[in-house]
């Protein structure tokens, strides 16, 4: 049983980290575009801003458990391309809906982080002839980095809950242990162990996030 708990803990961490990475790869540029295409911003475009905002809100409005089942054909297609197996369950397959589910959350958090930046900094960079890409790289991201790291920390903690959901329907992880030993064969000792491990994962994520924030905060 100790080996099984260790294995499912590894599956949980694997799914959380990988889906967090892919969610960030999708959500970070989306959040930047949500901000930069707004009115009076460096890439102002009302049509693009409206479409991006609608798309982001659409995905955010779908409860994760419904999204999980709704995109089964897409998940199966991606897994067929990546692994040659058209599956929608398992720790690798779960990364697809987890990443899609968390990307719009990351995007909105990034957008909100950028909205806190003083417009004077952006105007100063513009007046010196900086290109939009230079402004993003040298002004927006460095200034918003502490808030962005905090946002990503919150996202990983949220993902921990999503991972438990996919585990409960058969994708592995601690959620699968909780389902089996909580629903079908109640064993308090195992359930308590699962809860303690999940709490430790959350505390570890928060601790690492706080450490990174301290390093990137301007003094």
TrEMBL record:
Pfam families, A to Z: BPD_transp_1
Protein family according to the UniProt entry: Belongs to the binding-protein-dependent transport system permease family. CysTW subfamily.
Gene name of this polypeptide: metI
Membrane topology: Multi-pass membrane protein
Domain named ABC transmembrane type-1: residues: 9-209
Entry's transmembrane regions: 12-37, 58-82, 147-169, 189-213
NCBIfam families found in the cross-reference section: PRK10782.1
Entry protein name: D-methionine transport system permease protein MetI
Coiled-coil region(s): none
Biological role stated in the UniProt entry: Part of the binding-protein-dependent transport system for D-methionine and the toxic methionine analog alpha-methyl-methionine. Probably responsible for the translocation of the substrate across the membrane.
InterPro entries, alphabetized: AA_ABC_Transporter_Permease, MetI-like, MetI-like_sf
Keyword annotations of the record: Amino-acid transport, Cell membrane, Membrane, Transmembrane, Transmembrane helix, Transport
Subcellular location: Cell membrane
Main location: membrane
């Amino acid at each position: 049983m100790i080996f099984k708990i260790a294995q499912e803990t590894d599956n949980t961490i694997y799914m959380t980290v990988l889906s967090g990475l892919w969610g960030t790869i999708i959500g970070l540029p989306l959040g930047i575009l949500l901000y930069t295409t707004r009115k009076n911003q460096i890439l102002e475009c009302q049509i693009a801003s409206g479409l991006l905002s609608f798309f982001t809100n659409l995905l955010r409005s779908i409860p994760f458990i419904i999204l999980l089942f709704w995109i089964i054909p897409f998940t199966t297609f991606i897994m067929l391309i990546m692994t040659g197996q058209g599956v929608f369950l398992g720790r690798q397959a779960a990364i697809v809906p987890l990443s899609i589910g968390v990307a719009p959350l990351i995007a909105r958090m990034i957008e909100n982080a950028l909205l806190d930046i003083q417009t004077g900094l952006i105007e100063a960079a513009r007046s010196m002839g900086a290109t939009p890409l230079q402004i993003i790289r040298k002004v927006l991201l460095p200034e918003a980095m502490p808030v962005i790291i905090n946002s990503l920390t919150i996202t990983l903690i949220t993902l921990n809950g999503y991972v438990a959901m996919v585990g409960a329907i058969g994708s592995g992880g601690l959620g699968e242990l909780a389902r089996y030993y909580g629903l079908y064969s109640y064993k308090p000792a195992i359930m308590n162990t699962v809860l303690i491990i999940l709490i430790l994962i959350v505390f570890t994520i928060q601790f690492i996030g706080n450490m990174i924030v301290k390093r990137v905060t301007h003094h």
